[in-house]
Amino acid sequence: MRRSQQIFFTAFLAVLMTAGAASAKKAAEKPQQVELTSEGGLEWDANKKTLTAEKKALVVRGDTAMGADKITAYYKDGENGRDGEVYQVRAFGNIVITTPKQSVWADSAVYEIEKSVIILKGNPVKLVAGREQLTARVLELWQNEDMAVARRSVMAQKDARRLEADVVKAYFVKRDGKSQVERFEAENNVVITNDKEKVQGDSGVYLVDRETATLQGNVKISQGNNFIVGEVADINMKTGVSRLQMQTEKGKSKKQVRGVFVPDGKQKPVKAEKRRAPDALKDNNGDGRKENKKIPDPAAAGEQ
Fold first, then answer.
1. I need a surface site. Which of 14, 168, 190, 284 has the fewest CB within 10 A?
2. How many Å separate Cα 153 from the centre of its chain?
3. What average pLDDT does the segment 118-147 reach?
4. Residue 29 pLDDT > 70, yes or no?
């Protein structure tokens, strides 16, 4: 396609299609224009209502730019004679997305315009926000919520700290004119490690600036072969100080907090099992405490 034709179709797309249905927007909010360009030209299919760009394709909506090998925009006719609206954009191959909050690399992407959600897949998808790097097989960018949801083989890394889980939600915030990750919320098979310790649990919240985490469910904190286990833990990754406790029910702890310490690093750690209380500490009712037998008083025996 000649350059004059390319410019025509680019202008046509920008004028004809604006992103977002009126029902999904506030009355005072203006819909954002979608612009599609390409070095290889544009293909317009009026029957399928698509515009496809190949070879260094680029789609721009507001402050979000997405480049790829191939991009197809899907539009629908407007109501009451209005211009058409782009409702979805699909991209394939060498995808790069830039926003004021993050940069993302992926293999394929679906941009749901009306919801302002971008669903990316890759091996892996990589997101960079400030000094944080998040990788996963599937990543959802929820732009209106300033949030990203990562699924499958998820790892968030910053310097020596690594957070891994089946699902991780990252929440973004702007401070001092720069966007960064404020916190991570992790679910299922959560593991946080640094050069000092390893923490495991079923779910957890990690505050990035404070470098603190709260984990719940089957919590295990390890330093070398030494470890402690419990149900709830507050961890300070900066100081290495952790507080571990058990969940309580009606003021009573349901289980014990346990720790195993191996004096020689070459030895294998002993399996942590609940130890039975010595017989001397058991009572006749089996509640773990036994009354001490009275020692006979010699003086009293002499009086008898």
1. 284
2. 11
3. 96
4. no
Whether residue 231 contacts residue 219, with contact meaning beta carbons closer than 8 Å, is answered with: yes
Using the 8-state DSSP alphabet, how is residue 142 labeled?
A: E
How would you class 75 by CB atoms within 10 Å of its CB: exposed for 0-12, middle for 13-18, buried for 19 or more?
Answer: buried
C-alpha 62/C-alpha 198 separation (Å) is 42
Question: Distance between CA 297 and CA 304 in Å, rounded?
Answer: 11
The pTM of the full predicted model, rounded to 2 decimals, is 0.74
Contacts of residue 275, defined as CB under 8 A and 6 or more positions apart, other chains included, come to: none
Q: What is the pLDDT of residue 267?
A: 53
Residues 6 or more apart in contact with residue 233 via CB below 8 angstroms: 199, 201, 213, 214, 215, 216, 219, 221, 242, 243, 244, 245
Give the HSE-up count for residue 209: Cα atoms under 13 Å, Cβ half-sphere: 9
Residue with tokens 């020596």: 160
Residue 256 has pLDDT above 90, yes or no: no
**Positive or negative, the Cα torsion across 4, 8, 11, 17?**
negative
Q: Count CA atoms closer than 13 A to 134's CA, side-chain side.
A: 32
| DSSP state at residue 257 | -
Which of 198, 234, 194, 228 is closest to 216 using CA atoms?
234
- The identity of residue 287, as a single letter, is D
Report the candidate in 2, 36, 11, 18 with the shortest Cα–Cα distance to residue 82: 18
**Which amino acid, residue 23?**
S
Query: What is the H or E stretch that residue 90 is in?
Result: strand 85-98
pLDDT band for position 3 (50/70/90)?
very low
Assigned token pair, 70:
């191939």
